[in-house]
Write a structure and sequence with these properties.
Blueprint lengths: L6 E3 L12 E4 L2 E4 H6 L2 E5 L9 H10 L18 E4 L15 E5 L5 E5 L3 E7 L2 E7 L1 H5 L2 H13 L7 E4 L9 E2 L1 H4 L7 E3 L20 E3 L1 H12 L6 E4 L13 H4 L5 E6 L1
Parallel strand pairs: 5-6, 10-14
Antiparallel strand pairs: 1-14, 2-3, 3-4, 4-15, 6-9, 7-15, 8-9, 8-10, 11-13, 12-13
Helix pairs in contact: 4-6
The chain binds zinc ion.
């Protein structure tokens, strides 16, 4: 499946420039801008299996020319802690650090986060970058904005120098949330009312075509990045829904399994 069909930009790119975006490359989705920079990165699809398995990660990185590499993984806790590699943690030891984001200057080993509906967020600037796991709890706590601000502070950069890629995540088509969650978000990040697809069997609040709040996590993350100072045209959003695209992705909400995809960035 060559070419696009997977990507859409968050907004119109300025000056007639080509819109940034994700595209399929084998079992991975990749961002064309990082490809052009020669930065090894990607978001895995279900074709590569559950990436929590170190053997699968090893196979992936072997195939990318990183022999013996298994990638650096965190104990993700839906919080807002970010680890700077290698000064704060080099990934060694048996106890993983509890955090939901990595950042590093070049060169680095592959910095990885797991997702299965949450947003995998890649952020980068000149010779530095990071990868972050943003679910609704993180988004409600402003984690995407914090990630951009942390990178700028750590590497002495301006937010306008950063680029962002919001990887595959659950779309508003499938992400119904209750009022205890929707009340934490701005109006623009919610799809209100309207018909809910596949509503049969849902709760009285959300099912059967009744009006519901649906959360657009990708849009929320993009808004936070723009608030942090990124140019709208520098933020790419993968438009594929992990819940709709059973052929491509694991989805916690759809499958109730712990199988995970992985996004990684190797500076
Ligand atoms: Zn969907």
């Amino acid at each position: 499946m060559p070419g696009g069909g997977v990507a859409r930009a968050a907004g119109p790119a300025a000056g007639g420039a080509v819109e940034p975006g994700w595209r399929r490359s084998g079992g991975l989705l990749v961002d064309e801008r990082l490809e052009r920079l020669g930065v090894l990165h990607g978001a895995t699809t279900r074709a590569l299996g559950d990436m929590a398995d170190p053997a699968r990660r090893s196979t992936l990185f072997d195939g990318l020319g990183l022999k013996g590499e298994t990638g650096l993984v965190l104990k993700q806790v839906h919080g807002d802690a970010i680890v700077r590699w290698p000064s704060e943690w080099d990934g060694s030891g048996t106890e993983k650090v509890r955090a939901d984001g990595w950042m590093a200057g070049a060169p680095s080993r592959p910095l990885c986060v797991y997702t299965a509906d949450c947003v995998p967020l890649l952020l980068w600037g000149p010779r530095f970058g990071g990868v972050f796991h943003v679910g609704w709890r993180g988004a409600a706590a402003g984690f995407a904005k914090k990630a951009a601000e942390s990178l700028c502070r750590a590497f002495g950069a301006k937010a306008s120098e950063l680029c962002a890629s919001i990887g595959p995540h659950i779309g508003p088509c499938c992400y119904r949330v209750g009022p205890e969650v929707s009340s934490l978000f701005r109006r623009e990040s919610l799809a209100m009312g309207g018909q809910v697809p596949g509503g049969a069997g849902g709760s009285p609040l959300t099912g059967g075509g009744v009006a519901a709040d649906r959360l657009d996590l990708g849009r929320e993350v993009a808004s936070q990045l723009v608030e942090a100072g990124l140019e709208r045209g520098s933020v790419a959003v993968c438009g594929e829904c992990t819940c709709c695209r059973e052929d491509l992705f694991f989805s916690y909400r759809r499958d109730k399994t712990r199988d995970s995809m992985m996004a990684f960035l190797t500076l």
